[in-house]
Design goal:
Blueprint: H1 2-24, H2 38-51, H3 62-65, H4 67-76, H5 80-94, H6 96-101, H7 112-123, H8 128-146, H9 152-155
Helix pairs in contact: 2-4, 2-7, 4-8, 7-8
C-alpha cells in the first residue's frame, strides 16, 4: 500500500511539473545572450513592454531599446548569487499567474494589459517577496530606459556635457 501511495505521489508531482512546463510554452531562440535563457529573456521583454510601451508617455518604448538584452548584459557581469536570484525572480514572475491567481496561463502568455495589471498587483501585494521583485524590476527597467541616449530627446535632455570615454 505504501508503495502505491508513493508511486501515485510521484506521478502527481511529475505530472504537475510537466503541466507547468507545458503552460510556459516555447520561447523563440535569442542569439547573443550572455546570462539569460530564451524563456527568461521573453519574460523580461514582456514585462518591459508592459511597463514602457511604445507610443505611451514617449514614442519610444522598451522594445525599441531592447531593455531585456541590456539586463542580460548587466547581469552577466554580476556575481553568481545575483544571477541566481534574478533568474529565480523571473521564474516567479513567469509562473505568478498560476501560483498566485490560480490561472492556467503564465505571465508571457497573458495579454499586454493583463501583464501590466498582474505586475501592478505585485507592487501592492502583502508578500514582501513579490513587492521586492516588483520594485527591483521596475527600478532597473526605468533606469535603463532613462539612461538610454535614444530616450533623451523625448525628455528634453541633450546628453552629458563631457564626452564619454568611448568617444
Amino acid at each position: 500500500m505504501l508503495g502505491w501511495s508513493l508511486a501515485a505521489g510521484g506521478v502527481a508531482v511529475v505530472g504537475g511539473a510537466a503541466g507547468l512546463w507545458g503552460l510556459r510554452g516555447r520561447a523563440e531562440p535569442v542569439s547573443g545572450l550572455r546570462c539569460l535563457s530564451a524563456h527568461e529573456y521573453r519574460t523580461l521583454s514582456h514585462l518591459a513592454e508592459a511597463l514602457i510601451p511604445e507610443g505611451g508617455a514617449f514614442p519610444l518604448g522598451a522594445a525599441g531599446l531592447d531593455l531585456a538584452r541590456a539586463f542580460d548584459g548587466y547581469l552577466a557581469e554580476e556575481p553568481e548569487w545575483a544571477q541566481v536570484d534574478a533568474k529565480r525572480a523571473l521564474g516567479l514572475l513567469e509562473y505568478g499567474p498560476v501560483l498566485f491567481e490560480r490561472r492556467l496561463s503564465t505571465f508571457s502568455n497573458l495579454g499586454a494589459g493583463e501583464r501590466l495589471a498582474h505586475f501592478e498587483r505585485w507592487g501592492e501585494s502583502s508578500s514582501p517577496l513579490r513587492r521586492q521583485v516588483a520594485i527591483g524590476f521596475r527600478r532597473f527597467l526605468n533606469m535603463m530606459f532613462y539612461d538610454s541616449p535614444g530616450a533623451w530627446p523625448h525628455l528634453g535632455y541633450d546628453g552629458p556635457l563631457l564626452p564619454s570615454e568611448a568617444e
